[in-house]
Design brief:
The chain has 400 residues and is of the alpha/beta class. The protein has two domains: 247 residues, Rossmann fold; 130 residues, no CATH class. It contains twelve helices and twelve strands. Strand 9, helix 6 and strand 10 form a beta-alpha-beta unit. Helix 5 crosses helix 6. The longest helix has 21 residues. The two termini are 24 Å apart.
């Protein structure tokens, strides 16, 4: 099997000429550092030169479920156009395509992206379904370097080709020509940019007859809902859309809506169970959580719906039940008007131990920087892995 430390070595090399950083400015900066193409063009009231589309392809092998697979890893940029047909964006992507198959033009292809919307595909790319993945100590915080990449036993490469896309303004995706970030910042603008990239990729690689899928995470699920509509409206049929950590129901987070509190309750109970914060903790976790779900759908929802008309005796009974399910004190729950937000829960559950919980994965915990504060000051589930992800990505830069 080939060395996996080469797998991402092409990330920066494919696009460095297009995105080279300007030199440091000193007293004689103009003479020591000639103006960039963009600066020279600006003086002449001309748009900067459009960088060419680029691609760097390497070839690798892996074994998945006992089956040897040969694949190509392509890091590249594709140009997309504005409504006038002028290039206004260069989109960076990394694609993994299986080799040695009869007809690549009919093999499934999946487009993957993170949310944000200002997030590159780093997290999906290096932590989900690519042929290799980063090793972390999760749910414990991952320590300092060195870090390693290993074959990914959860890769989807045996089922579908994979194309990871960086949203405009993230990773190596940048506006070009007369394009600006404003051209891509906004719901319609974001969807339009992704649609034009996917159309360009499908056309260039002759994949119009391939089964096609979208895989979005967080805000990427909201993007996917609009994106699949935009693409299908233009004649590109899709076989499926996968929504991870979906957020299609923003209206449920409107002021006065209690769905957030009832919906989170089973998760709070599972977290409290994990950290042994449940009084008289039952042995059967599954049965315990089923009980919590029934309470959330029934008595808890009904109590919140009564608002200020909820009788005091009923309020006390609901608070006591919530305390038994979450490990929080009855007094705290009553002071919160029976409504515990996720940030408050992450802060309060282990306040007495000087710890806060992770936002994305509550099994992570970290030192509380302000034990008297209202909410957690940071996210241990992010800080616990960010160093590993960034460090391995940065190894792609020359000289590192």
């Amino acid at each position: 099997m080939k060395r996996y430390d080469r797998l991402f070595a092409f990330l920066a090399l494919a696009v460095l000429p297009a995105f080279a950083a300007p030199g440091l400015r000193g007293q004689n900066a103009e003479s020591e550092n000639p103006p960039t193409a963009a600066q020279a063009a600006a003086k002449e009231d001309k748009p900067p030169a459009i960088p060419p589309e680029q691609a760097s392809v390497t070839h690798h092998e892996m074994t998945l479920d006992g089956r040897p697979l040969r694949y190509a890893a392509t890091a590249g940029t594709l140009l997309i156009d504005d409504n006038a047909g002028k290039h206004n964006g260069s989109v960076f992507y990394v694609a993994y395509t299986l080799e040695g198959i009869t007809d690549a033009r009919t093999r499934p292809v999946t487009f993957l992206y993170n949310g944000g919307p200002g997030s590159a595909s780093l997290w999906m790319h290096m932590g989900s379904f690519a042929p290799v993945r980063i090793v972390t100590a999760s749910p414990a915080a991952t320590g300092p370097a060195p870090y390693q990449l290993v074959p990914n036993e959860s890769s989807l490469l045996d089922k579908t080709d994979l194309v990871f896309i960086d949203a405009m303004g993230t990773g190596f995706s940048r506006p070009v020509g007369k394009g600006t970030q404003k051209d891509f910042s906004g719901t319609d603008q974001d969807v339009r940019g992704f649609a034009r990239f996917i159309t360009r990729y499908i056309t260039l690689n002759q994949r119009w007859n391939s089964p096609k899928y979208l895989y979005g995470e967080s805000y990427g699920t909201t993007r996917s809902a609009a994106l699949v509509d935009a693409l299908e409206s233009d004649g590109m049929a899709f076989n499926g859309v996968i929504l991870m950590s979906t957020i299609l129901n923003y209206f449920l987070r409107s002021p006065g809506m209690d769905n957030e509190f009832t919906g989170y309750l089973p998760s709070y109970a599972a977290i409290a169970y994990h950290f042994d914060k449940i009084p008289n903790k039952p042995a059967d976790e599954k049965a315990f959580l089923q009980e919590v779900r029934a309470f959330a759908r029934g008595p808890y929802s009904e109590a919140l719906a009564q608002g200020h008309n909820l009788p005091d005796a009923k309020r006390d009974a609901i608070a006591a039940k919530l305390s038994a399910y979450t490990g929080l004190s009855v007094q705290y729950i009553k002071e919160a008007n029976l409504r515990i937000s996720a940030p408050r829960f992450r802060k309060e559950l282990m306040r007495g131990e000087g710890l806060i919980l992770g936002r994305y994965d509550a099994r992570f915990f970290g030192t509380d920087l302000d034990s008297a504060g209202e909410g957690p000051g940071y996210d241990p589930s992010s800080t616990g892995i960010t160093g590993a992800y960034v460090s391995l990505l940065m190894t792609t830069w020359p000289g590192n």
